[in-house]
């Protein structure tokens, strides 16, 4: 039996207790007992999430395609942001105009350095590998993976083009606000590219207990980090950077911190 989870970084407990749907990769009597057990154990009274009983492979595919679609939205709005930047247009106005269409809607529309974390990188690559293994023609899934790499190249080049920058400070390694997960975060791809190009990089990340990370010095004192950094790069703006906004680089257009 395969029963995928759909838990988001930073809100996993809430998603577990209040799921939008429960997918069970089995259709037997045992599957129905399993679903009942889940609902009795964790779902608050009054909630009645839809339970879908499907095949095992279908259940896994639901997980892969759902995460790939969300990754596609991240990639889409990042490419929109790059287009607006290169054409000297206001990306905020374009995004708001696009997302007010109810068929499109909001969500995953705030430009970033790319998607990362536990699910999106591995699930998009797994789905792409499945397509290739079965020799199924595809352009969209392949494009999602390539677009995420292209975004990191774009951000890296934008940072390198800044004049008078000897030390680039990376503020936080986490994949998104409200998370403590650094796994496969997009900013690590930026760090790798900068270091390979000979750029001096220092990192501020309270969740890292080592003096170095990816060959870069980890500075645990925020004030010292700010002073040492000629340019501070952050995937998401934080209120602790208000005093150094003049030397901060981000693509966070809809910051809510």
CATH class of the largest domain: Mainly Alpha
- How many domains is the backbone divided into? 3
What is the name of the CATH architecture of the largest domain?
A: Orthogonal Bundle
* Count of helix runs: 8
Q: Characterize the biggest β-sheet.
A: 6 strands, mixed
Number of strands: 8
What is the string of helix and strand elements?
Answer: HEHEHHHHEHEEEHEE
Helix content: 40-55%
Low-confidence runs: none
* CATH fold topology of the largest domain: N-(1-d-carboxylethyl)-l-norvaline Dehydrogenase, domain 2
* Estimated radius of gyration: 21 Å
Structural category is alpha/beta
What's this, in brief?
The chain has 8 helices and 8 strands; from the N terminus they run H-E-H-E-H-H-H-H-E-H-E-E-E-H-E-E. The protein has 257 residues and is an alpha/beta fold.
Keywords:
257 residues, alpha/beta, N-(1-d-carboxylethyl)-l-norvaline Dehydrogenase, domain 2, six-stranded mixed β-sheet, 11% strand
Kindly describe this structure.
By secondary structure, the chain is of the alpha/beta class. Strand 1, helix 2 and strand 2 form a beta-alpha-beta unit. Strands 5-6-4-3-7-8 form a 6-stranded mixed beta sheet, sandwiched between helices. It has a two-stranded parallel sheet with strand order 1-2. Helices cover 44% and strands 11% of the residues. The chain has 8 helices and 8 strands; from the N terminus they run H-E-H-E-H-H-H-H-E-H-E-E-E-H-E-E. The protein folds into 3 domains: 43 residues, no CATH class; 97 residues, Orthogonal Bundle (N-(1-d-carboxylethyl)-l-norvaline Dehydrogenase, domain 2); 87 residues, NAD(P)-binding Rossmann-like Domain (Rossmann fold, 3-Layer(aba) Sandwich).
